[in-house]
Design a protein that fits this description.
heterodimer, A: 151 residues, alpha+beta, seven-stranded antiparallel sheet, globular, B: 413 residues, 2 domains, six-stranded antiparallel sheet, 8 strands
Chain lengths: 151, 413
């Protein structure tokens, strides 16, 4: 397996994407893709209503076909319909440490299908850039912002 | 040649994805708010969102021809120095172009268009929205989701000047008066804008020494609306500057008592615990502004002189409820429609183009949206929540992509 190569700006497929990678990864089953995304994804967009999200465009080769597709993956609930009790109990800082899951079914932003596996993933495009909090101590979990270590 | 520079069709993917996150985030939070049974909000939203999706692209292209791309980016520059103006109101800046995007979602959900229909409208709307926001937020980023729910618009020296004018609120009588005033200006802001948030909005939090500051604008008398007579001699807007105890907030964030403190793109402040703003409040100042930018000026009202304003606000509230109770439902749908159409008003008003825009058809009904509305009106209670949940912000179809097409009306909510 080749290591991930980040495409330089001039070689990107889309000038507007955050980051594009050339990869060469054989994936036998949907769980392997989920594992790979959890291992390699460096950031999630945190929404305080109760989810962390990312969305990638994948270039895949499978069953004599090659195409681009979307994969949407989340921590927490999306759509974020929590009951009042669930919302009161939700700790958004803790949620960030959980594992992300691909939203597979009946969803326009995941156009890869389970039956497309096994496949070879050749390209990964992260659409949206990471958040850059203006007041880190207010937004990030206290251990991430460094607030936990201060008096 | 002066013009709005358009993003490519494929870049719409990026902003549609972002918008679906942002909108679902906001709507999930707003699900905790009440509704006004006198106002057919879902019906007028259905109409106005489709109206603006189909109609406002001409407005944004026309503005581009009038003031150029840089002129559009500079539209909100006055809001870095002044408050109490709609150019500074996040809700107007977000929803001016933003509601049109709901229009696409509603047309898709209503089964009236496919994902690639009106793709140029999508390009124009996102190009305008993105360009305006580049000049609106201090950060230059388009969304508070990018910057940790911090909606900083006013320049730092302006907020530092405001810090000099705030008064302590530890006197229980002053505090009670401020609470009543604060509640009433928000209520009248809602009523004057048909129960939507175009009538109010917060910017901040700003860090000023040992304080965090919010600046809350409430637009209690928009004179472009035919029902302005209900507002009597209320000023165009009231603003409240609130300072919060920064050390307390940091301590509470560290211990986990304060789970989050968020100001959304629409200028809505949500905190967990929900009443945290009241707990952390230390000082306040109140202002009124007679007219919207580019006219008018702000005047400070000392906290011990709020009573006459409270009395006027109570009278106006009473008049609004009587007006809404007597008004036929379809009239209210049309009036609500104009409120959302007017979300783009600050963009033309600030460039001195309000009258010319009206002559060009700014206030004219879009016939296609009225037809679409009449065919979907009875399903508004189903279509609107689904589309507004952010679930309807599906990607346009692009070459080389495996797609699933749209699923009109089949989104799980």
């Amino acid at each position: 397996m080749l290591t991930t190569q980040v495409k330089p700006a001039g070689k990107k497929r889309y000038s507007w994407s955050h980051e594009e990678w050339n990869v060469d990864v054989e994936l036998k089953a949907p769980d392997e893709l989920e594992d790979w995304l959890n291992r390699e994804t460096k950031y999630y967009v945190r929404a305080n209503c109760g989810f962390y999200a990312n969305c990638a465009i994948l270039g895949v080769e499978t069953k004599c076909d090659e195409f681009l597709c979307y994969v949407d993956f989340y921590k927490g609930k999306f759509p974020p319909w929590y009951s009042a009790e669930e919302m009161a109990a939700l700790d958004i800082d803790k949620l960030g440490k959980e594992r992300a899951r691909i939203k597979w079914d009946n969803w326009e932003w995941t156009t890869l299908k389970r039956e497309d596996f096994p496949l070879r993933m050749k390209e990964v495009i992260y659409i949206y850039p990471p958040q850059t909090p203006l007041i880190p101590w207010l937004f990030l979990a206290p251990d991430e912002s460094g607030l936990a270590a201060t008096k | 040649m002066k013009m709005l520079e358009l993003i490519s069709a494929d870049e719409c993917v990026k902003w549609e994805k972002h918008n679906s996150w942002y909108v679902s985030d906001l709507l999930a939070r707003r699900g905790t708010e009440g509704v006004n049974p006198l106002i057919p909000r879902q019906e007028y939203e259905l109409l106005s969102f489709m109206t603006t999706f189909l109609q406002h692209p001409w407005l944004y292209l026309w503005l581009g021809e009038k003031v150029g791309h840089e002129g559009i980016r500079e539209t909100c520059k006055p809001a870095h120095r002044q408050f109490g103006i709609k150019l500074g109101n996040p809700c107007n800046i977000q929803w001016g172009p933003g509601i049109s995007l709901f229009g696409r979602a509603m047309l898709l959900n209503g089964g009236l268009i496919g994902p690639n229909d009106h793709i140029d409208n999508l390009r124009i709307i996102y190009s305008f929205w993105k360009t305006v926001f580049e000049g609106y937020h201090r950060s230059g980023r388009p969304s508070v989701l990018d910057t940790g729910y911090v909606e900083q618009v006013l320049d730092q020296d302006v907020v530092e000047g405001l810090r000099e004018e705030v008064e302590p609120v530890n006197d229980p009588e002053i505090r009670a008066t401020l609470d009543r005033f604060n509640a009433l200006i928000q209520l009248v802001g809602f009523l004057d804008h048909y129960d939507c948030r175009l009538g109010l909005g917060d910017t901040g939090p700003y860090e000023v020494g040992d304080r965090m500051m919010l600046v809350r604008d409430c637009f209690v008398n928009e004179k472009a609306f035919p029902w302005t007579f209900l507002c009597g001699d209320l000023p165009f807007s009231y603003s409240v500057v609130l300072t919060l105890d920064k050390k307390m907030m940091m301590d509470d964030r560290r211990t986990g008592k304060l789970k989050f403190f968020s100001v959304y793109n629409t200028g809505t402040t949500f905190t967990d615990p929900p009443e945290y703003e009241r707990e952390a409040l230390r000082e306040a100042a109140v202002y009124m502004r007679d007219e919207d930018y580019p006219k008018g000026k702000s005047t400070r009202i000392p906290l011990d002189q709020l009573e006459p304003h409270i009395k006027k606000l109570e009278e106006v509230t009473d008049r609004f409820y009587r007006y809404l109770a007597m008004k036929p439902k379809f009239d209210k749908i049309l009036e609500g429609n104009w409120v959302y159409v007017a979300a783009s008003l600050p963009h033309v008003r600030s460039h001195g183009l309000e009258e010319e825009a009206a002559e060009k058809g700014f206030w004219d009904m879009e016939a296609r949206s009225m037809n679409a509305f009449l065919s979907t009106m009875e399903h508004a209670q189903v279509i609107v929540p689904k589309a507004m949940a952010g679930l309807g912000f599906g990607p346009p179809m692009l070459p080389g992509f495996r797609m699933r097409g749209t699923k009109p009306g089949r989104y799980d909510v």
